[in-house]
Structures are given as C-alpha cells and as structure tokens.
Amino acid sequence: MKSFFLSLFFIFSFFANGQNLYIKTYGNEKNKTIIFIHGGPSGNATLFEGTTAQKLADLGFYVIAYDRRGEGRSSDPNAKFTYEEAFQDLNSIYATYHLKKAILLGHSFGGLVATLYTDKYPQNVSALVLAGALFSQQETYDHILNALKKKYNSNSEQLKKISIVENLDKNSAEYRKGCYELAGENGFFKMPNPTPESKKLYADYEAGDFYKTNIRNKNAPLVFYQNEKQNNIDSRPYLKKIKSAGVPIYGIYGKDDGIFSSAQINSMKAITGEKHFAFLDNCSHYLFVDQQAAFLSKLKYWLK
User: Fold this and answer.
1) What is the Cα–Cα distance from 74 to 223, expressed in whole angstroms?
2) Could you point out which of 42, 128, 224, 263 has its C-alpha 20 to 30 Å from the C-alpha of 114?
3) Which branch of life, at top level (predicted)?
C-alpha cells in the first residue's frame, strides 16, 4: 500500500513539474532497479504492466514502468518525441527515485531509446537488456518487404501494395508505417501456436484495467520524423561501443518474430555473446507474453 501511494505521489509530482509523465513502480525499492522502456513511437507500457511487471518484481527486482512524454498515459501536446526528450525523462526518473544505476529493459523501439541513452550515459546503466528490440532499422524494413515479395511472388495485387511502400522515402513516417502495417497484416508479430498460458495472459490483459488505458497517439510517429534526425539508424556501432565501455548487454528475441532476418539475429548474438543471448521457441515480438516463463527465467538468471 505504501509503494502504491508513493507511486501516485511521483505521478502527480511529474505532472506538477509540467512533464506529464505517467510512471508506476513495482516491488521493493531496495532491490535492483529495472526500468522498462516500451515500443513506439505511439506505444505505451500497458501490456507489460498488465502481464509482467509485478511478476518480474516478485523475482526480486524493483521495476519502474512509464510512458514516454506524449505517448500513452503521458499526455503532452507539446511533446517533441525526440531521443533527447526521452533522455530528459529518463534522467528525471533517475533523479526522482535517487537512482545511481539501473538496468534498462528496452522492448522494440524502446531498445533504440535504451541503447542511445546508454551510449550517452553509460555511468547510469548497470546492464542493457534488448527484448525484441530494434537495432538495424533499414535491414528490418528490407527484410519485411523481401519476405512478402517472396510470399506473394505471383500475386500481382499484393506485389503492387508492396511496391508502393517500397518506393516511399525511406526516411519517412509513411515508409515505416507501410512496412509495419504489411508486417502486421501478415502475422509477423504473432506467435504461430499460442499456448494456454499466453492465451490467458492476453485475455486477462484485455479484460483488465490496463487495457482500458491502452492509449495510442497516432501523431507521435509523424512528429518524431519531423523532429528527430536519427530516424532510420543502425545501433550496432553504439552497442559495440557500450560493450567496450564495460556495460553488459543481453539480447532476448523470439524465433518467430517476423521483422528480423536470421542475419540480423546472428549479428546481435555476435555483439552480446552466446551466454548473453536467448532465442525463444514459439515466440514472436511480445515475448514477455508469448513465452513469459522463459522470459522471466532468463532475466533472473542474467541479472540476479
């Protein structure tokens, strides 16, 4: 109860400071801190909170979940959606919770935020965990489009849809949106054989309070591309630099996450090292739900 009211206090304190940052904590503040950084732009932490945050805390971690400025429950009409703005909000969390170091757990686009933050502030990060995290964006877009061209090699209507996206400006919000929409329509983000456990997690989430606050800011990607110059990057050089600086890097990915090629996965594994990499069977993009037990077990093994 005390931690609940403490979380509420910090939520309101962020609003009072004009940052409009939703934030909630789970577990004992004396334990190792994990900050979860959600996907996007336009995402939020509701799925992670509604399924996994408390279970991760139960393993002996102090888990902080938040929605980036202007995304999800962190309403802000003046948000810029830049990496630098995301860094400012992370630094505010460090200051508010008196954190010297924390583990950053970055999912999807949140992996890019976590990587670039760690590169800039390595002294603040005790470990970097990339969970289904983006890293070589153009390779991901190329892989999605090439996989679909192979799948629809004799379907002129589908090939026309793919061609329209392929010919867009590769540094535009429209190109990114087109690639991911095609991926979503073709099941790239879904596990092939949902388990009873994953079905229950998704069903409970959709029936619960967190799903009711699953707010998506459709303007976020557009504004991000207007304001952020680093909008189509390969973060592997940053990861190599981070590793050489002594910050441990861990990668956990689903074997059925359709947005990554095998070459990409192998390149990530080469950076993290085999002992710091997990490749989960029957698992797609939302691996903390698709294979939650394996996800939690790996994090506990690596980080405890």
Assistant:
1) 16
2) 263
3) Bacteria
Question: Hey, is 227 helix, strand or coil?
Answer: helix
**Rounded Cα distance, 34 and 128, in Å:** 10
pTM of the model: 0.93
Distance CA 256, CA 223 (A): 31
Give the residue extent of every domain in the chain. 2-303
Rounded Cα distance between 279 and 115, Å, is: 20
Place of tokens 């996989």: 147
Closest by CA to 123, choosing from 246, 236, 20, is 246
The domain defined by 2-303 folds into Rossmann fold (3.40.50)
pLDDT digits (tens, 9 = 90+) for 261-287: 999 999 999 999 999 999 999 999 999
Burial of 111-123, coded b for 16+ CB within 10 Å and e otherwise, reads bbbbbbbbbbeee
